Amino acid sequence: MACQGLQKGETLESLKRESETLKKKLEEERNKLNDVELHQVAEKVEVLSALSIKTRRVLKGHGNKVLCMDWCKDKRRMVSSSQDGKVIVWDAFTLNKEHGVPLPCTWVLACAYAPLSGLDNKCSVIPLSLDKNENLAAKKKSVAMHTNYVSGCSFTNSDMQLLTSSGDGTCALWDVESGQLLQSFHGHTADVLSLDLAPSETGNTFVSGGCDMKANVWDMRSGQNIQSFESHESDINCVKYYPSGDAFASASDDATCRFYDLRADREVAVYQKDSIIFGASTCDFSLSGRLLFAGYNDYTINVWDVLKGTRATILFGHENRVSRVRVSPDGTALGSASWDSTLRVSWSFSTGSNYIFRFIKLLFWVNSRLVLEFTVAF
Amino acid sequence: MASDCGDVSALCSALLCSLLGVLGNMSALCCPEVIARMQDEKNGIPIRTVKSFLTKIPSVFSGSEIVQWMMKNLDIEDQVEALHLGTLMAAHGYFFPISDHVLTLKDDGTFYRFQTPYFWPSNCWEPENTDYAVYLCKRTMQNKARLELADYEAESLARLQRAFARKWEFIFMQAEAQAKVDKKRDKIERKILDSQERAFWDVHRPVPGCVNTTEVDIKKSSRMKNPHKTRKSVYGLQNDIRTHSPTHTPAPEVKLTNKPPILVLKNSLLGYTEQYLEYDPFLTPPDPSNPWISDDTTLWELEASKEPGQQRVKRWAFGIDEVLKDPVGREQFLKFLESEFSSENLRFWLAVQELKKRPIREVPTRVQEIWQEFLAPGAPSAINVDSKSYDKTTQNVKDPGRYAFEDAQEHIYKLMKSDSYSRFIRSSAYQELLQAKKKVTKSNKPQSLCKPVQTKKCCK
Asked: Which spans are transmembrane here (chain B) (predicted)?
């Protein structure tokens, strides 16, 4: 953030007031462009009926809270990191553990398929090989260096570059091979807890969320903060792009998830319920973007109908906070990690019984018509 | 009858609720709000004193009453959900079963009591082991059978005695002093306070096997904004809570902020979702089957094979990004362009994408190579860019960075999108691929959970 000294006639108070006035003006301008709520527009969209999602795989093996997980591109392998200081690669399909890497720092907060980052302020990249006898930990390479914990990391479409978010309030882009800092992103006024890369082939943007209750969109090339959203009432724990890249969702300690449209430049939906009073720590979209899976500190995963704004279903099962949810790369399954030291895999058993529902509706209609004609005849 | 202390603690809770950024353990921000509603005189849960045998059980309500209240007031339709939420609120210590160390909610006649706000988790408690030692020691001084230590408590006491061997005399004295003060109290009040104190410890020193709900996300604890608000000692404090009656603790005033946002419509979001509905395995069963359900990995094998299925080919028509994203799509697109002798655009675009992913060390060389191949005068795969982009690129190449070709790439992308891509989709090569797997009969095709209203092409 550019820091200039106070100009003549300015005090901290006057600047604060000016900033508040500007914020209000911005809100007013945004409001002028507004008409309808997302769920009102989505009225013509058919309701999801008979959505049946069940958890059918439980991966046990960590000795402590699982803090993070991610899917491998092959759609069946997962990597997870835990407070027990280990990173485990699983074949979730067969429940086999394929690699186990012990790490010197027990607080491994984030892992993506390959890079690992944690509370030792560093981000390490560990190459994985099929040779189980290799001492993988020895091949670990330090890449990112922040002045506070690294909360999230993501490869930028190749394993040569790494994007990190940190408790030091910044995000940074690194060259993996040399460890060089390519670009840093300043703008958050508190810890940055999460980041997500835009899913575009041409885009160069990413979104970050932090303890300053703000979600910021950044240009990777220039380091500029191009959009900012401030509607949450507490820490934003997770941000995730909608699959088209035109919107994103956020999960927060204020017990809500919110949906922001980038082109409209504002929040367009809030996912909340009176019965949900615990913070949401993580979220991810289904492949079409119709469903938003969110993990909460009340040990549940709520599945939201993104367009209608209602909760489609709820998944119980974890016995402690859900720290991470991720949909598999081809959208066939949902992986979840928890402080209960397990990972779970869930999927949909919906077989399109909407058809049966319609058939029954038709039967009733036919019946009622017959009755009517019968009575009229008399 | 609440004394100043009560008011202060209630006010503290209220302030803590509304100053959301101050709370240490942020996992259950809204609990105090809900509790306040539960305790409301008019619309809350009725609290009563129950007479049993020779004793009175003061200030209780049943588990069923909690469940009923929640289902009525918190928009909960399912009893399972109400029990889950209620159990969590109990596990965090906002109310507790009066006769059990294990903090769960049962939908029956089991009695529960509210916790005094002083002991609420929202007060950022981090009680010391010395306090726990004082508490357990005090318990052993009380001669009531019902206050006997449970096995795990006895074990904890033994451990603490060993750990604090040197200062045990001091701890013992504290315990004695506490016990003396307790004896002076009114019997009913004592019952309530004892149970609340026990419930406090059940939260901070849970029964082995139970979740410790006081565990904080390390990322949050490492940025404690108000360390002075953390209460570390239960019994060493000057303003002892035992000087006021918890039975009449007023419900803290909580500010409920309900700002409904004014929203905006975005048709493209709807369009996208509808278009991809059939590709979303959570809504439409994949063809031939979801490997997770059927244990059959055919779907993944098909994806990995060079032969793209009809559904996959259909997707390429949604927009140029779909083709560029799919390696098989890229291959087919390239093949088509080669047949038209116009593949240099795509090859340039791909080369620049690749460049941006290289290690910084390799960038200068790669930039030169791309320049020579595509843009230099007499280049073998010359591409056509507007003069402005060309000039800019010429400049960039002199001091080569990852974004040297950004302008040129953007220009080429727009060109491909408006020209080559649309021809590709209309080409016979593409149409053939699309028709190829049409042998899948209509009756076999799995139905979607909801029929799309209109399949609008979502062109990007």
From this structure: none
CB-CB under 8 Å, B26 with A161 = no
Q: Give the best residue of A58, A288, A299, A351 to mutate against chain B (max B CB count within 10 A).
A: A288
Q: Does residue A35 carry a pLDDT above 80?
A: no
CB within 8 Å: A290 and B218:
no
Domain B23-114 has CATH 1.10.10.10: yes
Pairs of CB atoms within 8 A across A/B: 277
Give me the number of domains chain A comprises: 1
Whole-structure pTM value: 0.82
**What's the CA gap between A79 and A98, in Å, rounded?**
10
Q: What is the CATH number of the domain that holds A93?
A: 2.130.10.10
Partners of residue B403 in chain A, C-beta under 8 Å: 221
Range of the domain at A204: 51-349
Where do the CATH 1.10.1240.60 domains begin and end in chain B? 129-204
* ipTM surpasses cut 0.90: no
Distance from the Cα of B189 to chain A's closest Cα (Å) equals 31
SS3 state of residue A59: strand
Report the topology of domain B274-435: Regulator of G-protein Signalling 4; domain 2 (1.10.167)
Q: Please tell me the predicted confidence (pLDDT) of residue B455.
A: 42
Tell how strand A342-348 and strand B55-62 pair up.
unpaired
Of the CA atoms within 13 Å of residue B420, those in its CB half-sphere come to 25
Mean pLDDT by 10 residues, chain B (460 residues): 43 40 50 92 93 89 96 94 96 94 95 94 88 92 75 94 92 92 89 94 94 88 61 58 35 33 54 92 92 93 86 93 93 94 94 90 94 94 93 92 92 94 94 72 54 44
Confidence of residue A73 (pLDDT cuts 50, 70, 90): confident
The predicted-structure confidence for A225-273, as pLDDT tens digits, reads as follows 999 999 999 999 999 999 999 999 999 999 999 999 998 898 999 999 9
Ramachandran sector of residue B214 (left: φ over 0; alpha: ψ -120 to 50; beta: rest): alpha
Alpha helices (runs of H) in A2-104, residue ranges in sequence order: 12-32, 38-41
Interface test with A, best of B283, B290, B330 (most A CBs within 10 A): B283
Do residues B256 and B33 touch, judged by C-beta distance below 8 A?
A: yes
